[in-house]
Amino acid sequence: MDRDPVIRLRELKKTYLVSEREPGLRAALASLVRRRRSEVRAVDGISFDLRAGEIVGFLGPNGAGKTTTLKMLSGLLHPTSGEVSVLAHVPWKRDKAFLRQITLVMGQRNQLVWDIPASDSFELNRAIYRIPAGDYRRTLDELVALLDLEPLLAKPVRNLSLGERMKCEIAAALLHRPVVVFLDEPTIGLDVTMQRRIRAFISEYSRRTGATVLLTSHYMADVEALCKRVIVIHHGRLLFDGDLSGLVQRFTAHKTIVVQLRDCAADLRAYGEVLSCEDGRQTLRVPKAETARVTERLLADLPVIDLTVTDPPIEEVIEQVFAQEAA
Amino acid sequence: MRGLADLYLQQLKTGIASMLQYRATLVIWLIGSVLEPLIYLVVWSTVSRSSGGAVGGYGARDFAAYYIVLMLVNQATHTWVMYEFDYRIREGMFSAILLHPVHPVHADIADNLSSKVVTLPFMAAAACGLAVLFHPAFHFAWSAAAAFVPALVLAFLLRFLVDWTVALAAFWTTRVTAINQIHFMAVLFFSGQIAPLAVLPRPLQVAATVLPFRWTIGFPVELALGRLTPAQILSGFGAQAGWLLAAAAILRFAWRASVKRYSAVGA
Description:
Chain A is α/β, with parallel strands linked by helices. Chain A has eleven helices and 13 strands. Chain A folds into two domains: 7-249, Rossmann fold; 253-310, 2-Layer Sandwich (Alpha-Beta Plaits), CATH 3.30.70.980. Chain A has helices spanning 25-33, 66-73, 96-99, 118-128, 133-147, 162-174, 192-209, 220-226, 244-251, 291-301, 314-326; strands at 7-20, 36-50, 55-59, 81-86, 102-106, 180-184, 212-216, 229-234, 237-243, 254-260, 273-278, 281-287, 306-310.
């Protein structure tokens, strides 16, 4: 069963022209006459497909081209070259039929009216998206229940906390039940509990509606909880597209072995790099290819009470991915 | 059409609710709206008295009538979309607006109308107050009153579309305030705001007839005061309609170009 992709990108590129100027008065005067401009390749030929119902993590360091890509996918930016299709529409043409089916939530942007209660902004969105009254009521009730919005609805938006506002922003962005959802840092600046809530909500929304979700986040917990598949870009180029576990496999050369012994007396340096030792619990880093052999030797040589083999945390992996690229 | 009417209604409600949040700002703004025409009124009444009772066919009480009506017309047609656009571009708010499946001009018109709903009763009260103080010479005629309403609606739409199009400059330059300043000066001179057009030198009068600004303020004011002949009224409506069509066409073109630029440059 190979359905057409909901989102399709081929060799997508976006180049910005930016003004440049040396510091100092002389350069300032010179720039009056002649502006120097240079090209910045924000997105440099990326291709991928997303199928209906997928939740995909879109990762990369700051300035990697994530937001530029999301803006091209939602029709806010015109690509310099390449092809892009979302729900069989060319996004930058901004057809009304296309705009009614998508949403873009940007963590620090504000689409709620500041001075009035969020529920009034919801009503405004109902009118903007021409949502039939029955559908609106149903979706709103669902969103209010899932995001626990009831106590917030009557407060002016400016009186809400950052997390409360984000919840309302997300609700406002989903009232028209978009089938494609672009989320740019939806949990930025939120506390851990609120992050978890938003994460659970996104997963539930996608499950209930079958929506396709492309999500950027700096919090790996978001990605681990939501995305089986991740796409990593750096300097506008695609570095990786595949399962999260595949990312770890591909970009980590080491595994971590935690061995519980009776005390820290045993010297394990012969087995691998000792990262820590605490109450007989030693953490070793070993080359991935050596893991099985080292584990076997540890169990044979020492009075091991417990032993676990883990991958390094995903943050570390991502850090390594970006570092490798930079090197 | 029903969808659009619903959008206007909802935006109107939202606009009114937002305005009522800031009572102090509202009061300060209202004082400003009364003070400006009041200053012109006092200056021109003084000039007319010192020039032997009339300037350009306007006596002191005629000036009072002119500026009281002008205050109301200006209030009804005034917009602030330039500041709004400048703010939206600087704060990166256009992305959210462009994601909506509806032309943003509708939300802006409805928002503007909401301010009229809130401020018009106060302005009407201020007009009554000024009438008591300055004894304006009104010549009421039913025909003029009947023609005034469509003239005012056309004036509002024309002024709105012109201002909205000029405001699009915010997409092209970050120094949009300078452009606004030039635009405001043009409105001040050619709309009949700084003085009734009959008082101005001939070349300025001709320019005012050719430019759109007179048809957004001066024309409905003179119409309400019974200063226009039926032929002048008819040609005024013609000018309003012509400019309105032209403004809508230019807006359409300029909006497309602006969005194209925005989507090339990003924000």
